[in-house]
Amino acid sequence: MSSQIDHLLNETRRFAPSADFAAAANAHADLYDAAADREAFWAEQARNLHWHTPFTRTLDWSNPPFATWFEDGELNVAYNCLDRHVEAGLGDRVALLWEGEPGDERRVTYAELTDEVKRLANVLTELGIDAGDRVAIYLPMIPEAVAAMLAVARIGAIHSVVFGGFSADSLRSRIDDAGAKLVITSDGGYRKGKASPLKPAVDQALGDRGHGPQETVEHVLVVKRTGTEVNWEDGRDLWWHDLVPAASADHVAQPFPAENPLFILYTSGTTGKPKGILHTSGGYLTQAAFTNKVVHDLHPETDVYWCTADIGWITGHTYVTYGPLANGATQVIYEGTPDTPHPGRWWEIVAKYGVTILYTAPTAIRSFMKLGRSIPEQHDLSSLRLLGSVGEPINPEAWMWYRHVIGGDRTPIVDTWWQTETGAIMVSALPGVTETKPGSAQVPLPGIGLDVVDDQGQEVGNGNGGLLVLTEPWPSMLRGIWGDPDRFKETYWDKFADKGYYFAGDGARLDEDGDVWFLGRVDDVMNVSGHRLSTTEIESALVGNEAVAEAAVVGASDETTGQAVVAFCVIKESYMKANSLDGLVDTLRAWVGDQIGPIARPRDVYIVTELPKTRSGKIMRRLLRDVAEGREVGDTTTLADTMVMSTIKGQVTKKD
Ligand code: WTA
Question: Where is pLDDT greater, at 1 or 56?
């Protein structure tokens, strides 16, 4: 880590905004002054939304860490993303430029999307979904996914989108935790050149009724996407195409209180059980729309915007569905993988639709770097005028490549730091204002209070590293963990309770200018390809296999994915007596993929005879990380058995 930090601190390249970009930019330096009165600033941003009932109170922070924003105001989130644009005469504007992986296309205008959402809202009501009910959405990246989120929001219900790459088990636990009444899914979606089924995972999740508490799911609404044969449970399963087109397109959006829950999104924490992060309506939409406008410099009349995230992640929620649609943007949505049918697919899409704003993850940029510049160079990328990065620290090399090869040395890059919990971007350069530094996410946005502190909560000051904290409440902050207020307090607020700071779980350093450099997580959360995974969750999956007695998982640095999952497993004596270990490594990798989802599958599994533990029995993951990253093993003096590391090293090297 320290050599990496030194390397980062030697980064001296700077890029000032061009005069042309600055002249037309949505962001201006005076936004920072305007935000000196934080509450007034956010109230002003909130007034860009349509309020059925205007709010009179901005923030109530009298009962921290439970905040309310715009509490006495009422709005309808879907109305803000749809009807108001149609009513303003923009019904013919394209909302979604959708491209399926096989090359099929759909252009959906604001009028058409509004119509579809109204019909679906009527269907949901007919199916008995009321305000406050939970609806699980398990869909590929098709227009219906966006419509489903908005229809649920429109009737004041709460969606829980589950990433289509998660397993039946993961889906089941999310359905149970939220007590979902309805699941919206599809027969499948196209990935890597073939139809990849989704409905079987729903069947498996719901079939095993003894597994969860009492079954809460009454219906499964199924979109036909691939035409793959599906199992059908009469009475429970319903086709979207039977119900939605036949439903009435008359639906008047009702106002809901600003603090009405909008969605739950599960994310990995430091324990085995994912946390249901809860977001509400008015504050969330305010910050989603504001950040999309100033950080992505969105000009909805002229831009073609593309955020490559899946709606299964927070980035897809805020910067595919809510932010851009609240702003009336025209955006590209692509169903498939970046390299299907050829490695230039993304760049072909940029050229085809004339994408002007591209928002993606460092891991994608690094894999394109690996493939070489000759691939993007075959496509006309001259429409691009702004590039964004999200999900993990972007190393200066990848930043420079992104700017040079993809951005033609002309585009500003915004490296945006935020979390599922923060709901929207918190730290970023403002394009047209900030002189950018490759590798640094730079400055808190106007209206955001942030600091880097030591373990006691004392500011570390410029030139030093520590823990990132958010010092003031913000409109799109999480309002809690679904069903677990204690865990909400413990996880984020207890560490600096006396100061009232939110603890983000990220290490960060302030440079001499006070710019923020993110250094990765300080807890047991890994970041693999920009996706959060918990070491404990993967360890519990591993020990759930009949062969494994004990497991320790670490995130090891990886050139492409940022971090990679590396597992060390001790095998049960009884298993070894009865079985050969041939093929066990592959079996265990596949097992984790089945239990959690392919993103959690370890890059390496090492079979070892012991794990390094302190005298009190705590696994020393730091030492295992040294082994996984091929470094000299650090200080072993606190180990119960100081020889164990040389044994492990021997076993790992033998395997290589
Ligand atoms: C990391 C994704 C450095 C960080 C929006 C955070 C980043 C976690 C950046 C949240 C960035 C996200 N620079 N690190 N620009 N963006 N992270 O909840 O560790 O999936 O805590 O939200 O990703 O991941 P999540």
Answer: 56
CA 416 / ligand 1 centre spacing (Å): 8
Q: Is residue 391 part of an annotated ligand binding site? A: yes
Q: Is residue 508 part of a domain?
A: no
Closest CA to 254 of 76, 389, 408: 76
| Tens digit of each residue's pLDDT (9 = 90 or more) over 517-547 | 998 888 888 999 989 898 988 998 999 999 9
Using CA atoms, how far residue 222 sits from 168, 416, 522, in Å, is 16, 35, 41
Atom of ligand 1 nearest to the CA of 315: 5
Do 73 and 259 contact (CB within 8 A), yes or no? Answer: no
Q: Tell me which residue has its CA closest to atom 16 in ligand 1.
A: 391
Residue type, 230: V
Last residue within a domain, chosen from 454, 485, 503: 503
* pLDDT tens-digit map of 65-74: 999 999 999 9
CA 547 to CA 561: how far, in whole Å?
28
- In tens, the pLDDT along 370-424 reads 999 999 999 999 999 999 999 999 999 999 999 999 999 999 999 999 999 999 9
Span from the CA of 269 to the centroid of ligand 1 (angstroms): 13
Q: For ligand 1, which residues put their CB under 6 angstroms from it?
A: 267, 313-315, 390-393, 415-420, 441, 504-506, 518, 521, 527, 532
Domain boundary among 461, 488, 503: 503
Tokens of 195: 């139809």
What is this structure's pTM?
Answer: 0.92
